[in-house]
Amino acid sequence: MIELEAVHKTYPDGHVALRGVSLSVERGMTLALLGPSGCGKTTTLKVINRLIAPSQGRVRIDGRDTAGVDPVSLRRGMGYVVQDAGLFPHLSALANVEIVPRLLGWSAARRAERARELFALIGLDFAALAGRYPAQLSGGQRQRVGFARALAADPPIVLLDEPFGALDPLTRRRLQDEFLALKERLRKTMVLVTHDVEEAFRLADRVAVLDDGAIAQVGTPDAVRAAPASPFVAAFVGGATPAAR
Amino acid sequence: MSGARRRVLAVCAAALLGAGAATAASGPPRIVVGAKKFTESAVLGELMAQILEAQTGAVVERRFNLAGTQICFDGLRSGALDVYAEYTGTGLREILGNTTDGGPPGAVFALVSAAFRERFDLVWLAPFGFNNTYVLMMRPDRAAALGIGTLSDLATHPLRYGVSHEFLQRSDGMPGLRATYHLDEASAVGIEHDLAYQALADGAIDISDGYSTDAKILAFGLLTLRDDRGFFPPYEAAPLARADLFARVPLAEPALRLLAGRIDDATMRRLNYAVEGERRSPADVATEFLRQLGVSHTETVPSARPAGLLELLWQRRWITLALTVRHLWLTGVAVLGAVLVGLPLGIAVSRRPRLATLALSSAGVLQTIPSLALLAFMLPLFGIGVVPAIAALFLYGLLPILRNTVAGLRSVDPQLLEVGQGLGMRPRDLLWRVELPLAAPVVLAGIRTAAVISVGTATLAALIGAGGLGDPIVTGLTVADTNLVLSGALPAALLAVAVDAGLGGVERLATPRGLRA
């Protein structure tokens, strides 16, 4: 379970990124952080794995304040997926997937077994693609490898920052479908950052709409759609899905 | 075939030992003889070296072609040299900084002897017997036609003087000469010394300055005018030695005294001519002269250097190989040191912009110091020989390696670093698994640049006694033997090309496969 309690983030240059964000994500649930660019959704995500330290407020994972946890071991318990996958260009698909198991000191045999499992899980042909470098993969394949890398050590939490942002519409749709299937199967606690309303409503159990560093509304997709809490939410949600109303 | 291979190995081993073993622990005493980078100094150095070998049983090491007085003198004081041939006038003016004329030759010698022993614990032995001072030279037919034999005779003639630029300015040159000999009619222009001989021969100028033992005086058949009022200060050559040499090797002093007073101006000129005009090695010329004096009976086959470049290259193949090995050794150690310092330093400063700027600009300043000046700066710190050369090459290699390390690390996409961090990589993991592999091609390009610069600059190391392929280049330049210059310059250029190509290959191999286009 992830809990954010009145999290503020002010940068040294005076820019205020978060103004008192409070959120919770139940175990096994997926929360979408939704909003226009610059609203603070990525900052909120990075506060969870402490790539950004909050200026005020607390972040708790399963009840433990993350301020007291070594950030490295904290992050090793969370998968991390970014836009266009962020694969290491000098490493093969296999080596990218094996990065975290390597850091954790797994044996070669265990790593290899896990890698085959993961390739099967995300629907990539191990024999054909394991040895390829990121530049030799398609956008969809790269993103799949990015998922596999995040899931390698079977972390209970997965953080996703615009994971489908760089894909063409067809590939995006297919990966979203597979994501839904995986989500049902794996039951990870997930936080998904997106600016795509349709995607948030399709993939998440709950949606948090952010506006200028503050939470405008949190609720199930149906609740948010049915009763926007403010004109901003109504405009943002409604504008993107006119057909739904 | 196997004989040749053995020889190659022996040559390589000798080159490495010569470079590495600075001090022999036991065995026969060792004497280091130095020489400045001009013919006469080399001939005198060979004479002293051979007579010491013949008379004392010491192992004599030669450090010739040193760039100048300061280097030889510092070498002597630091113990890197035991003895070299110096000129009394130089000791008086350049080393003691005494600007008075010092009086006649005997008085100057007495003055420097006393001062050097007291201030530096260095000993001037009795002079060789010639005075290599300034002289004025004319074509004999022209002098005879005007009835000129001494400098006093010049006063009444409006002659055209073409003198070296230095002579034009120095107080013991043209200005003093005008005053002393009333050369009111003289018109003087500056001319490059080596061109003055041809200008005299062509009649473009009437009179020029030279050194009394210059071989070209003989080659061009010029007349030297007598300095009848004793205007030019004496420049008598004599062995200048560390006092402790004679304590270590008592036989060294009587051995060197065998040369005292045995070489007059004409003899020295003849010996210089044998090297420059007849293209013989200083060693051959010295051996022959010592045999004539009856002080040494070493048998050598006198060999003139062949005139053809290919013959010379073939004749010198083993020497060239040894010099190449030594050259590689010098540059290899220097570049390795620069990598060991520059790479960690670059990593340390790459994330700290202010420190990076400081480190890069400091290394940049080092780079702008001319190579010869940088070598000279090393001398007070490290003496002469291999160590200062490696230190200078090391400093030259530092900038490209440091700069490329910083640039390479900075070129790594920050998003990748954040992803790595997000996956739970420690800074150390990021450095080894992400940053360095991605920066490797740029870092290696820096190392390659450093190595190529180093191979080129190392040719100058010969000037401070470090050896290498610069040796024949410097010697060739002093004796005006283009082929000898090429026998060092060609292998040095090939070496630079080979090092560049070799490291280029390493660079390609080190480029991560995922990044190769």
The name CATH uses for the topology of the largest domain in chain B is: MetI-like fold
Number of domains of chain A: 1
> What is the tally of beta strands of chain B?
10
Mean pLDDT of chain B: 85
- Count of folded domains of chain B: 3
Largest sheet of chain B: 3 strands, antiparallel
* Approximate shape of chain A: globular
Anisotropy-based shape of chain B = elongated
**What is the oligomer described by this structure?**
heterodimer
Helix residue percentage of chain B:
55-70%
Low-confidence stretches of chain A: 240-245
Compute the number of helices of chain B.
Answer: 23
The two chains with the largest interface, and their residue counts, are:
A-B, 27 and 20 residues
Order of strands across the main sheet of chain A: 6-7-8-3-9-10
Strand line-up of the largest beta sheet of chain B: 3-10-4
Number of contiguous helices of chain A:
11
Give me the secondary-structure topology:
The complex is a heterodimer of chains A (245) and B (517).
Chain A: E1 2-10, E2 16-25, E3 30-34, H1 41-48, E4 56-61, E5 64-65, H2 71-76, E6 78-82, H3 93-97, H4 99-103, H5 108-121, H6 126-129, H7 139-151, E7 157-161, H8 169-186, E8 189-194, H9 197-203, E9 206-211, E10 214-219, H10 221-226, H11 231-240
Parallel strand pairs in A: 3-8, 3-9, 6-7, 7-8
Antiparallel strand pairs in A: 1-2, 1-4, 4-5, 9-10
Helix pairs in contact in A: 5-7
Chain B: H1 2-20, E1 30-36, H2 39-56, E2 59-66, H3 69-78, E3 83-87, H4 88-95, H5 105-120, E4 122-124, E5 134-138, H6 140-146, E6 160-163, H7 165-169, H8 174-181, E7 187-190, H9 193-202, E8 207-211, H10 215-219, E9 223-224, E10 237-242, H11 243-248, H12 252-257, H13 265-276, H14 282-293, H15 309-315, H16 317-350, H17 353-368, H18 371-382, H19 386-410, H20 414-422, H21 427-457, H22 470-478, H23 482-510
Parallel strand pairs in B: 1-2, 6-7
Antiparallel strand pairs in B: 3-10, 4-10, 5-8, 5-9
Helix pairs in contact in B: 1-16, 2-14, 4-5, 13-14, 16-17, 16-19, 16-21, 17-19, 18-19, 19-21, 20-21, 21-23, 22-23
